[in-house]
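User: Okay, second chain of the day. Same drill as before: sequence in, structure tokens out.
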Amino acid sequence: MNDINTLALLGVIAGPVIFAAAIYFTKQTKLRNILVLGAALLTSALGIFIAASPSANVYPDSWVVYAGAGLEIVMTLAVLAIAYNIRSWAVGLFGTIQLVLVVISEFMHGESSIGPAFVVDDLSRVMVAIVSVVGSLILVYSIGYMKEHEHHAPATARSTNTFMFFLVGFIGAMNGLVLANDMKWLGCFFEATTICSFVLIGHDRTREAAKNAARAILINSFGGVALTIGAFLALLKGSTQYSGILYHADIIAFSFIALAGLVKSAQMPFQSWLLGAMVAPTPVSALLHSATMVNIGVYLVLRAAPAFVGTKLMYFIAIIGAFSFAATSALAIAQSNGKKVLAYSTIGNLGLIFTCAGIDSPLGYSAAIMLLCFHAVSKGLLFLCMGTIEQKIGSRDIEDMGSLLREMPLTTVITLIGMASMLVPPFGMLLSKWLAIEAAISSPIVLLLVVIGSALTVLFWAKWIGRITTVSYHPWYTIERISISKQSVLAILATIVVIAGLGAILLYRDLFVDIAIRAYQGTYISQSDMKLFEAAGNIPYWPFMAFIGLALVAGILAYFTVNASNVRAPFLCGENVPGSTKTYEFRSVKDSSHLAWSSSLYLRHIFEESKTTMWANLIAAVIILSMFAAIGVL
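Assistant: Same drill. Structure tokens below.
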């Protein structure tokens, strides 16, 4: 790796951390905003540079390896300090186990001098691009958001400087994690993301925020223990690099790393920490759900998928992911809290990525990478739209969004673009799900769960779109005023979503297929799987363009057809109350006056959250235990 690429790699990790430190100590709001913008510009530029660079390995000096070991101990001690501060014996126990294993491993010898400490390959380039570009846009959005948040935040809230310090530093830690190959550096960055999420979720320091932050660090500390055990087991066989675990196909060590990934990606039964993260300011939710935290798990499993083709472990990972996808899609139907719907959708789509990774085929792998990219952009956009809406109307309830198109036409249109990108052609999310269904054809259980989850996904997105667009006629709309930082980021993300959607098939053919081929090079793939993979690469482009053309024509016709002269009073099975030609009041039994109202169907009698969650968590736990039993751990 040449000096320029090495500096870029160092900059994309250390750059955000240095900017974060400067932000923490600055006392001027304007200077802080400039530093945040600087961090965003530097990180996105370096991230794009690395994404466009060739694959390379970084073989560092011995002091870099020792630095990773030292920082891993520091991060573990920080977790113990948090455990003491929040009086959590469970977090303290997990932290102690990690510390003991990390210290013992320092007295053992592996192949640390042989393997690279950092790796730039296809998967890490994709991840760095997602983290650096989407994460940087979220940083810019947070400038305007936090200015408004300061006015209504509780008095207990931490300073905005502290918030920005951890938000910017989070991106550096995430970039470090997806580039790290040495298990000590990987463990260090893994714990750094846990600490950042704890502070950011608990930013407002209310009772609810503190409770959910404590739950987040408890569950993620369990994931940290699983990762440390996996690294320790690998060390016993002489490997201190993730690539060494894959080279030796150390399935026992990887099973614990996969468990850590399931925790970080909030798969059932570990999803409660991510649902609780909704109490945090919107930039935190957007960063956790799209660019950083939850992608850690799928990254760890995707990197290992080609090394464990045909194993029972990967089959169970596929089942766990598919079950989480179906269960959380069902739970999302019963929610009227917009952020909660987005959270369940995130968990479900990550489950689908796990499923694709576990299917053990190039087709599944390419679908997983495609899902990862398109989900990050669309979900980042939707969370930022949700934050903008919440600050305007003071509610997250979908039922309060009936007049949204009138009050916030620009934000509403952008929100609808984001929602459409999750379920209609030609956007990549729908194409990815089609590919996932095709890849799962050889596994009836996985296929059934994916089909159920996909159908339920259409239902809850369509309901939400219907609620927003079911409005009375207005001849004109006034564009709302929002801060330039928020408006520009929403516009940029919406543009990326549209352009990427129009080119989804081309991206699949020319990018994701090549990544999958290189990942599975030298791995045995059945003839039937290869035929499916080759057939998927020949998806015709013209039907999608025809669909777009028809949609545009229908929209234009509707625009010129609907006008004030066509508007009539709604028929409400009774005489309308006089006084207005467009009233929603009508006369009913005994000439009484009633106001008509409409609401979405939530099916709570079927998908009641607490009972559904209880049974789903139980089933998911049984599947995970069965996974460990199948590979001989239990």
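The chain has a mean pLDDT of 88.

User: Thanks, on to the next one.
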